Amino acid sequence: MTQWDRLRQLPPVYIQQLHELYDRDGLPMDVRHYLSAWIEKQEWQRAARDHDFAVVLFQVLLENLDIQHSRFVQEESFLLQHNIRRYKQNFQRYLDEPCSLATAILWFLEKEKEILASADLAEQVQLLRVDQEAMETNSQQDLERKMAGLRNEVQCMEHTMVCLEEQQDEFDFKFQTHKLEGKQIKKALKKEQVKVLQFLANRLNDCRKSILSDINKVLDWTDDLINLLVKKELVEWQRRQQKACIGAPDNVCLDQLEKWFTSVAECLFQVRGFLSKLEELSGKVSYENDPVKARRPALQKRADTLLKELLKSAFVVETQPSMPQGKGPLVLRTNVQFSVKTRLLVKFPELNHSMKVDVSMDREPPQIKGYRRFNVMGTTTKNLNMAESQNGGMVADFRHLTLKEQKSGGGSKGVSDISLSVTEELHLIYFNTVFELKGLAVGMQACSLPVVIISNSSQQQSAWASVLWFNMLSQDPKDVVFFASSPAAPWPQFGEMLSWQFLSATKLGLNPDQLEMIAHRLFGKQPNYDTYKVAWSKFSKENLPETFWVWFDGILFMVKTYLVDLWKEGLIMGFVSKGKEKSLLKKKKRGTFLLRFSESVIGGITFSWVETAITGEPDVKTVQPFTKEDLSQIPFHEIIRNFQLLEADNVPENPLLYLYPDTPKDRAFGKYYTEKTGGKSTQLVVMTVCHWSCRNTLEAKSPMSSDMAQGEGLEPMNGLCGEAAGESWLSLLSNPAKNLINQIALPPSKRSSTISLLALW
User: Fold this and answer.
1) Contact 719/743 with Cβ under 8 angstroms?
2) Can you tell me the distance from the alpha carbon of 71 to that of 77, in angstroms, rounded to the nearest whole number?
3) Three-state secondary structure call for residue 404
4) Where is this gene product found (predicted)?
5) What is the DSSP string of 69-109?
């Protein structure tokens, strides 16, 4: 099944994400649909780098569009004919820059994979839930009971109001009849009528008092529910959204909150209707000490206050600001489009398309010297509507906004001496609207989480670090001066955040052993890390090029781009120290190897294996780390598959036999191997580089000093045995092979041996 077919079978919420993805310019959904199989078979990553290859793919793409056009002509599909012709004309703009088209298509395919990953993760989480209702928290169950009680009470009041109106009509009719008859009736009968009227008046008075008491009780009930919704459930959702923005697999669906908010709002509007009806009835029939005139104004004020409080909290940012090709949400770049979606949790269909939402920036910016100011450009006004939401919610989806820095008056005269870097500077985006219904008008404002605004793509890594740190630690979502005195992160919270990064990128987080290695790197060997904290300056600082985050993010990028399948299968141990690696392998049989990330090369991965030395002792050997430059040329599983050493008798041997702890190499990696098919396949050739007798001449220091320290790794080959030896065959090797020369290292033993390099012939 193609990736596109899988996407089309996803639940509606993910189909909506797919529609939002293809609302952008770059790759029309029609083209993606009709050419899906061809698109997914092409090497777009190579085309993004190789201009000649990109030209070939570009021409084939146009030919495929012509074929589709001819097909639609035969089928007499007039509209599709027109669309395909227009798409082909639009693609002509890439005639001189086919690599840009390849990059765009590659980006769309990666975003599709992210949608699939999200759906798979949600499915896995759902499978872990035996029964969602059984897993609801006690507070939610209590809230549901109270909500049902409120609805039942309001329904009873509706019946009571009907009874009150009937009683008043009866009293009014008999009273008016009594007045008309006047002196025409006998005194005894008149006295009896007065007695009946008094009974009816007392009953009417009691009924009014009862309804007013019931309304007060309903308002007490509503007050309690609003406290639960606004101060607990909504706050918890906002915290979950913060965590979800940085990779946590938290549920941020608003459907349940919308149901609760709408239910309470409907009840309050009904109460307001009851109070209006009481005012109307009291205007028709009133008397001394009428409880309606005495108590209704206070109840009206209280009902309006509660309703306004609920409505003001019901306007939220459902999807935080994000750029199409950003590192994550909440990092925006000037003059680059971003999208954001607001939602009204009180859903009244009669308000569809009637509430206008306006966007603005930094209503009250902090008085910090150098704090920048920005204007929001693009379509900054939209109406809340139910058409842009897959589940029919009231949303305003802004998809074409940009930020432009103000040229003057940009905060240069701040009263504070606080100094923040560009990526520590936080900004808020505000959304304003007015709710008007049944005589009630309420101004409403929603606010995004703080965004980091950059002007250059090189600042993305540092900006994303700021987003991670803020949303991991801040309890105040509007604290734009958070980095003026940023708190340290407790290790349990910090480790969880790191695991989220791998979970969101690869669907597999970090296990306790991997987290322990990272803690060891940060704090040294400790019996327990729970009380330790990581300072912001140690995690990421713009003026420090080699912070923890730069190292960690380099690994994350490498895994996500080149090693995601191996990582998800659990084939990469990854975060393991050299010492731990050595102790693990020495206990295993010859040929056992493991894969770990480099501790000193940014975005590097290496493998180590155990051999038996002449003395009979286990000897652990390591190659110099491979980086993205190497992995972009040769897949890592192919390097592992074909890595060989040549012994003295020139018999090639792959020392990698068992993936730790004891899985045969081909069983672990076999399904990823590239099959050879005829002359067009890549052929791996064993090249003899040098005999061990040249070792002293060729020895060179490795840039990976910590990886190679204390005999734990192999020494890299940076040259050959004399110039002639190099000239004899080095010129025959392709660039990937030359790169690999610097990756393979000689064993430290002094026995006569040679090492072979796997080169692309």
Assistant:
1) no
2) 9
3) strand
4) Cytoplasm; Nucleus
5) HHHHHHTT-HHHHHHHHHHHHHHGGGSS-HHHHHHHHHHHH
